[in-house]
Amino acid sequence: MLSTVTSHINTFRAARLTHQSPYRAEMADLPATLYPFWKRTAQHEFKGIPQDAFFSPAPPKG
After folding, report:
1. Origin, by domain of life (predicted)?
2. What is the mean pLDDT of the chain?
3. What is the spatial distance between Cα 43 and Cα 52, in angstroms, rounded to a whole number?
């Protein structure tokens, strides 16, 4: 239950960050499949990297 609530909160935060970002146009150009791919593979390349929805839009923002 707690993980579901945390996931929803992080998804909301990610959507807010994306909406408020001055790089919205650039982020819109990212393929829709990038997040699922990143979530599946990033932890293998970068040990300890967060895998939540809030963290994923942060790197392409600038």
Report:
1. Bacteria
2. 77
3. 11
Cβ atoms of 30 and 21 within 8 Å: the answer is: no
CA atoms lying within 13 Å on the CB side of residue 8? 4
State both tokens at 3.
């993980």
Rounded Cα distance between 18 and 38, Å, is: 17
Q: Check the CA dihedral 22-61-29-33 and report its sign.
A: negative
Q: pLDDT (tens digit, 9 = 90+) per residue, 27-38?
A: 788 887 887 887
Burial class (CB in 10 A: 0-12, 13-18, 19+), 49: exposed
pTM: 0.48
- Name the token pair of 56: 């994923």
